[in-house]
Amino acid sequence: MNTRTREILALIILFLVTAIAAYWIMEWLSTKNYKDSTTIPFESESADVTTMDDPLDALDPIPKQLSLGQIAARQELAEYAFEIGSIADKLFNLISSTKKNYYRELYTFLHAFPPDQTTLSAQLENELSQLALVLIAYPEIFIAIDCHSDNTSDPASMRQLTNAQAESISAFLREKGILNDQFSTTGYGSDMPITPNTNEASRKQNRRIEMSIQAR
Q1: Which of 123, 96, 92 is nearest to 211 (CA)?
Q2: Which run of H or of E encompasses 185?
Q3: pLDDT tens digit sequence for 113-156
Q4: How far is the C-alpha of 203 from the C-alpha of 147, rounded, in Å?
Q5: What is the number of domains present in the chain?
Q6: What φ, ψ does residue 210 adopt, rounded to 5°?
Q7: I want to staple 147 with a disulfide (CB 3.0 to 4.6 A). Which of 93, 159, 165, 201 is the partner?
């Protein structure tokens, strides 16, 4: 066998070895990718079912999992006689509807603080008690409660007044078992009137408590 023939045979052998090695590498990679891909559905199923891309979906009135206490609380709410037009009545009707994108909808309480007072009236306590029932049954709901005043005093004093009113509401809701991470309260004083403070009727409208629904 001459030198030329040996070179050709060596090239053929090298080609065959390279082809066989490439084949086994491709087989190993395809097997590894298949095993990795088969774990994806399992990982997805084990993820938190309540995690959603859209923050508005956090307010879905039908969460994936309910505790027995929440189920019982919702059954009781279905038969509860809310004060017509109250915050709790409006919120429960909204939750019970087919509407889901109710992020930041704004409602005004039926009852507010008397002028220059920080103590809850009996009517306001009753309205807050009904609201607490809804929040207990629907812990996925987060609300913001804002206290507003008229301009019968300087802005700093009115802001201090509404901050104290907001704290009274916070304390009451906590006593009812509502956790701090389900609501917030803020006093805005006279900074955000809805009508000019030209007479007592308009000042009464500005002395208000509002509630908005927010995503966590």
Answers
A1: 92
A2: strand 183-187
A3: 999 999 999 999 999 999 999 999 998 899 999 999 999 999 99
A4: 14
A5: 2
A6: -120, 155
A7: 165
C-alpha–C-alpha distance, residues 89 and 82, integer Å: 5
pLDDT band at 109 (very low <50, low <70, confident <90, very high): very high
Claim to verify: residue 66 and residue 42 sit in the same structural domain: no
Q: What number is the average pLDDT over the span 169-197?
A: 96
> In terms of DSSP H, where are the helices of 79-154?
87-96, 122-137
On whether both 110 and 188 belong to a single domain, the answer is: yes
* Strand order through the sheet with 183-187: 106-108, 209-214, 142-147, 183-187
Q: Residues 17, 79: one domain?
A: no
Q: Which amino acid is at 83?
A: E
Taking the C-alpha atoms of residue 45 and residue 92, their distance in angstroms, rounded to an integer, is 32
Determine the angle formed by the axes of helices 122-137 and 87-96, rounding to 10 degrees: 20
Strands 142-147 and 183-187: parallel
Q: Is the pTM of this model over 0.70?
A: no
CA separation for the pair 179, 174 (Å, rounded): 6
Q: Are residues 8 and 91 in the same domain?
A: no
